[in-house]
Write a structure and sequence with these properties.
It is a single chain. The chain is of the alpha+beta class and 174 residues long. The chain has one domain: Peptide Deformylase, CATH 3.90.45.10. Helices cover 32% and strands 25% of the residues. It has a 5-stranded antiparallel β-sheet with strand order 1-2-3-6-7. The chain is globular. The protein starts with 22 loop residues before the first helix and ends with a helix. The chain binds nickel (II) ion. Nickel (II) ion binds next to helix 2.
């Protein structure tokens, strides 16, 4: 799968709920993990690969030896509870090279369905809480720089313009 790069329109759209849990959905999930691992990302949302379905994959140990042992699949995820606050660096495969400190809740409780359509809830703190919020934002057409103050966002976009040019040069060479 090809990763969509900001400001691609698909990143600004709201993804649609998954209603049928079939082989197509399981294939998309597997391909999303593959794409995420190839790029060493910790999470990936449907929008980022041009699939406007509410599907998120997360593996906080992507790129490490334990890759694949803690796969998290969230279909139709919804945040039930949020608590506290954290301020930490965030990045995104759709904004290559850009890292900014983003304020997020320190704890979240999320309900979702797995690839077979079964309901479950997941609680996360720190990095997991951050990943859950970041990926669910994607499904709602929000990228992490949208969570910055207007001034910070403007500065981030200036920096990103240069990074995007470098990224495009590098990917063209390959
Ligand atoms: Ni992202």
């Amino acid at each position: 799968m090809e990763i969509k790069i900001y400001p691609d329109e698909v990143l600004k759209k709201k993804a649609e709920k998954v209603k049928e849990f079939n082989q197509e959905i399981r294939d998309i999930v597997n391909q999303m993990f593959e794409t995420m691992y190839k790029r060493g990302g910790l999470g990936l949302a449907g929008n980022q690969v041009g699939v406007l379905k509410r599907i998120v994959v997360i593996d906080l140990e992507s790129g490490k030896e334990r890759q694949g042992q803690n796969k998290i699949v969230l279909i139709n995820p919804e945040i039930l509870e949020m608590e506290g606050e954290q301020l930490n660096q965030e990045g995104c495969l759709s904004l290559p090279g850009l890292y900014k400190k983003v304020k997020r809740a320190a704890y979240v409780k999320v309900k979702a369905q797995n690839a077979d359509g079964e309901d479950f809830t997941i609680e996360g703190e720190d990095l997991l809480a951050r990943a859950l919020q970041h990926e669910i934002d994607h499904l709602n057409g929000i990228v992490f720089i949208d969570r910055l103050s207007p001034l910070q966002k403007r500065l981030a976009l200036q920096r990103y313009k240069k990074l995007k040019r470098e990224y495009e040069r590098k990917t063209k060479k390959k």
